[in-house]
Amino acid sequence: MKPLVILDRDGVINVESPDFIKSPEEWNPIPGSLEAIVKLNHAGYWVAVATNQSGVGRGLFDLAMLESIHQKMRDALAKLGGHVDLVLFCPHLPDAHCECRKPKPTLMNDIATHFKIDLKKTPVPAIGDSLRDLIAAQTAGCKPLLVLTGNGQRTHENLPADLKQIAVYSDLASAIDALLMSKAP
User: Is 8 noted as a catalytic residue in this protein?
Assistant: First the structure.
């Protein structure tokens, strides 16, 4: 079975925006993030993205536009010889009390189901920049990793006691380098 890594999108793969990423033109990768995903691909990992996208629920963009944004990400990765294997998202507002919005673990669990992986038995790294990413990962049984890009610095400064021991990296590239070095023979 191939190893799996789960990534948040905004603030991890691409630059975060307080005004939401509403179009492909607004989607810009964080330097080194796409290359990090390519490294995962070349090392034999599945790469999944789990992302809250409440801009859909807010009416800022529709599902077709969200797919266009994801297609820009896929195209940028393809130019470098990489890809993501699965993108799952929650389109709901924070107050919708849905089951799929992180910090609930549903997106993580759905990814595990897709890849036929038991998260309680397989330590799957889940990389995020916000507390809700880390809580979702921890609740699902993943190994939460924090990056300081996006909302990561603020998240790091306010980590609750039960998450103080997680690994923290400057960005996705450094997190992936450390992950791949730990798997080296």
Answer: yes
Catalytic option among 10, 129, 133, 171: 10
Q: At 184, is the pLDDT very low, low, confident or very high (cuts 50, 70, 90)? A: low
Q: Which residues pair with 125 in a beta bridge?
A: 143
Active-site residue (options: 8, 129, 133, 171)? 8
Reported as a single tens digit per residue, the pLDDT across 74-103 is: 999 999 999 999 999 999 999 999 999 999
